[in-house]
Amino acid sequence: MTDRFPFPGVRFAAKRLLGAVLVLLVLSAVLYALFYLVPGDPAQLACGERCNPAQVAQVREQLGLDEPAYAQYLHFLQGVFAGRDYSAGTSLQHCAAPCLGLSHQNDQQVTTLIVEGLPATASLAFGAMVVWLTLGVGTGLLSALRRGGATERVLTVLTLAGTGTPVFILGLLLLMAVCAYLQWLPFPSYVPLSQDPEQWAWNMLLPWLTLGLFESAKYARLTRSSTLEVLAEDHIRTFRAYGVSERAVVARHALRGALPPVIALSALDLGSMMGGAMLTEQLFGLPGLGRLLIDSVRSVDLPVVVGVVLVIGTAVVLANAVADVLYALADRRVVLT
Amino acid sequence: MTPEQPTGSAAKTAETPETAETAEPSSEPLIDVQGLTIDFPTGEETLRAVDDLSFRLTAGQALGIVGESGSGKSTVAAALLGLHRGTGARLTGTVRVGGIDVGAASVRELRRLRGGTAAMVFQDPLSSLDPYMAVGDQIAEVHRTHAPHVSRRAARERAVTVLDRVGIPDAERRSRSRPHEFSGGMRQRALIAMALACEPRLLVADEPTTALDVTVQAQILDLLHDLREETGMGLILVSHDLGVMAGSVEDMLVMKNGRAVERGPVGTVLSAPQQPYTRELLTAVPRVETRRTPVAPAAAVSSASGPDVLLEAVEVRREFGRRKDRTVAVDGVSLTVAQGETLGIVGESGSGKTTLGRMLVRLLEPSAGSVRYAGRELTGVRSDLQMVFQDPVSSLNPRRSIGESIADPLHAAGTLTDAEITRRARELLERVGLDPQWYHRYPHEFSGGQRQRVGIARALAPGPGLIVCDEPVSALDVTTQAQVLDLLAQLQRDLGLGLVLIAHDLAVVRQASDRVMVMRQGTVVEEGPADRVYDAPQDPYTKALLAAVPVLDPAEAALRRAARRGSDGGVLRAAAG
Amino acid sequence: MTVQDVLTPGAGEPAAPGPAAGARGAWRRLRTRPSAVVAGAVLAALILAAIAAPLLTAIAGQDPYTYHDELVDSASGGAPKGSFGGVSGEHWLGVEPGTGRDLFARLVYGARVSLLVAAGATVLQVVIGVSVGLAAALGSRWADQILSRVTDVMVALPMLVLAIALTTVVPDDFPRPLLLVLVMGALNWGGTSRVVRAQTLTLRRLDFVAAARLGGSGPLRVVRRELLPSLAAPVITYAAILLPSNIVLEASLSFLGIGVKPPTPSWGQMLSTATTWFRADPMYVLLPSGLLFVTVLAFTVLGDAVRTALDPREASRLRVGTRKEKTRD
């Protein structure tokens, strides 16, 4: 209990990460089983409706779909960890280490497609996080500290309305108001950060606001309830009974207890936003991972679907582990196991 | 360890307590409460917690406020520091502390009063400290609040000084620990250190020892006493326990339902109470000196080695956790209980007494050893062995009527018809002193004592031969305690039950037991007939426990304190003499 | 304790043996909250409208599937003729741009899909969640380990992603509303299971369960008589949170084009086509948005009210005084 060395923390983190890897392995196996073994004939899907049986057989051989199930999965894993080769007609295509297979649509590597989608998704997620952390946490704190007043009522109604609004409705309304009627902003169209930072920011402004506002409601509620919970604890009473000013009580004692869940949830959300911001991406036409997933679902491009889901899963599982570690560091009462 | 010299007016009054006590009009009393009434609006009705209360406290004096739960004593303590502001409570009357009108004071004045003039020590020392912050930093923060010119470093040093003063060993290093790394007693010491840091003229202690073991309680009370002698600060000691008053305060105020029932010098109130309520309270307090009145002279069992041994445990042992975290809760305990006999098991927290009790009825499986009932080895729970639990709230299912709870074992057995079961449950209610008409009522409609009676009725339902009572009265007020103990004794007499009474309160155990086992850290340190163990204890731990029990006579309390202050030998002498 | 325990509402909190145990007290508290009454009334009207959809559309003389090409202006790409999206005596709320289908009929029929799918999914989630949670809390240590890890994964993975992915592997002729119920039910039971497991573990340690065991109740009887009644309150509370989130999820899937198949009407699907129409026909955005918003808000408000009604401790929390005095009486 008394040691102050980072060792228990390191061991805890290592344990969490190992657990995360295991979860991902299981997840990949389940996904693989689900997508490649259960429904109809992947080779037929890959080849297209109009292929004749001979062509389907050829595709099957190319993709290694004639092998037994476990061998296919092992090959898939081999691709992830060591890379693998595909024969596309006469030429041989090498797919380097984290290889998630080839798209059935255009023979592009899934990894390449994902890497292309990442910048847009990451731009959206991090920008939105700034919005929800300032707006959501600020609102939540304010309504907790002004408990019982008119401020709290207004904020409660607003956050309640916020939690009730699906993100695409919020986005649509913002689009209508800001772009169509007020014409303050042009219709967003994605410009990569590397190409033109200013245009990038202008065009991302509305998506950031949409997603950030949407998430703010949740954060306001969490911050409020967690602050109120801490404020009702006995040790707060102690410092009040010793004449410590209300501001110091909140800043030094209440926030310390109230913020760990907020930080942890942010880490979690950031992780799931790698895929969860799909609705916002779709609405604003951002070429991110979410769009990639939807497009590949529509065209039944199984390797891409599996690849994207796995990448999103990885992000989520890692974010979970990070959130646990952050939480444990912030709240020393949590026992590291 | 050199204690800080007290400064300011507190020191002067301390040097001349007699003059302070007698000189009236010139200096204002430290506390002056006039006609204080506190109402809590709760939904439709208003709850009057304090009703027209007036009292004064001269600087340097100590006043004890005693009362059962709901008497409003803690509410008074909180009102002294104006802690009701912003909670919706309505105050009328005046409260003046250190010359400040608490009700009318500005926020700034109030903040100076809190901690600066009057400091508070709370009941639960764990939750009263910030779990995220080092103890020393918390004390330094409070100190700096009242002495803004003091540097961070100096405040930190001050924190170490006061921690050292209250007897935290290795204070420099321990000041960097967080509260959860401290034991219960040390946390309470740290809270007292926080109070000391600002050199207040008044200490308000609200049930400061209720959550602590009896030996630790004695240490904390001694510490408060010493600090008062040293710094001359006044003390308001709020407690439900009459015993802690005798050695700690000069005057006493007995409260009931928000009103002052009786007040006066502690010796007078405790030895010659004027009011019937005070007398009732005092009679109900179990005393460790009192021998047990034999339950049934005819069936008296002096030794359990006879043929009628009901329950026998042989070398039972219980471990929790695995590998590195393994702890031994009970380490090879053997015992016997005869029919109609009460075995008392006494010990402080962590002694393993509750674990042992649960193993006796097989709610827990022993890691080793065996338990035999009526000569047969126990393999699981059985209806002959029942239990009465400590917490009257969690021991009854809130969503079932008390009648259903009592009838449940009969339904489970499935030998009686529904009509017979209902009749039997009503009989049982009557037997434990409750109205059979209450069959359909729910637990939340009852008081703690009544719920405990329901628990006893449920234990009786399957017709057991032996009941294990795990702290059956520790959550109850002292008058209710006596009634429940009487009920148990009467049932034992009528039904010839064997009883195992587990408690931390030495007096309760003596009052109700034929034989007593003293447990410490999972083992039995002493065992024997109750009178022998209490009158002539053999083990040093038993002696120390008995020496720490609060007594109701102030003179005796002072003697014992003096004895404790001496070496360990002193403790032993006091216990033996 | 992990982050998820902290973030899952209800998990880790002790079971609430509150005052006025039982449904009657809760019902009384619920009725006296104006916001809850309003929300309840709105939902009742909506549910009635959904049930009576064929009747209502018959009164209007419309149906959700008939095209009315004459009502849309093909010159402007198919925007409805007339003001406010083509509101008229026949088409109370106007017509759909492009097709001219009656908007009122499509909205009312859309409510059917929305509510039915959400309710079905909620029931499935609660059933799975309660079973898994109970099994984890009462089963062996290994069962608990495995089930808890599975629950962790279920809670952590983004629902929408998996739901979308799963719809790819199901044959096209499988009925879509049923598919949505199954997918949503199978993926989103983690929260319920956590709440149930945590509550059960807390309850199991309480003395009244020990007393029941001593009284001769077997494990099944303990679950039925002692545990399940106390689990009802947290489960209902959690289901009240799940329901509106399921409505949003169904709308989201339809919005992404992965929900119910056209021509079956659905609010989310209308909104996804509305993205191209919000300049020419704002009514087409505002009507389904408004309806969806009001429905979700009403469910959320009602859920909030149900929670406070079932847990009246919140109101009397900030009282000064020792803890001891509050628990004793």
Automatic annotation (TrEMBL), chain A:
State the PROSITE patterns in the record.
ABC_TM1
Against CDD domains, the record matches this protein to: TM_PBP2
Where do the TM regions start and end? Answer: 17-38, 124-145, 157-184, 200-217, 262-284, 304-330
Which GO CC terms are listed, alphabetically? plasma membrane
Q: Per the UniProt entry, what are the Gene Ontology biological process annotations, in alphabetical order? A: transmembrane transport
| Pfam families according to UniProt | BPD_transp_1 (PF00528), BPD_transp_1_N (PF19300)
Look up keyword Repeat and say if it applies: no
User: How does the UniProt record describe the way this protein sits in the membrane?
Assistant: Multi-pass membrane protein
**Primary residence:** membrane
User: Which residues belong to any copy of the ABC transmembrane type-1 domain?
Assistant: 118-327
Where is the protein found, in the record's own terms? Cell membrane
Keywords assigned by UniProt? Cell membrane, Membrane, Transmembrane, Transmembrane helix, Transport
Regarding protein family, the annotation reads: Belongs to the binding-protein-dependent transport system permease family.
The protein, known as: ABC transporter permease
TrEMBL record, chain B:
What keywords tag this UniProt record?
ATP-binding, Nucleotide-binding, Transport
Pfam families membership: ABC_tran, oligo_HPY
Q: Which ranges of the sequence are coiled-coil?
A: none
Where is the region Disordered?
Answer: 1-30
Compositional bias (Low complexity): 9-29
Indicate the family of this protein: Belongs to the ABC transporter superfamily.
Question: What protein name does the entry list?
Answer: Oligopeptide ABC transporter, ATP-binding protein
TrEMBL record, chain C:
Q: Taking every annotated instance into account, which residue ranges of this chain make up the domain ABC transmembrane type-1?
A: 111-303
Q: How does it sit in the membrane?
A: Multi-pass membrane protein
Keywords, sorted A to Z: Cell membrane, Membrane, Transmembrane, Transmembrane helix, Transport
Q: Which residues cross the membrane?
A: 36-60, 113-138, 150-171, 177-196, 227-249, 283-303
- Sequence ranges of Low complexity compositional bias: 9-22
Entry coiled-coil feature ranges: none
**Could you confirm whether the keyword Cell membrane appears in this record?**
yes
Sequence segments annotated as region (Disordered): 1-22
Report any one BP term from Gene Ontology.
transmembrane transport
Listed under GO cellular component are: plasma membrane
Task: Write the protein's name.
Answer: Peptide ABC transporter permease
This protein's species is Streptomyces flaveus
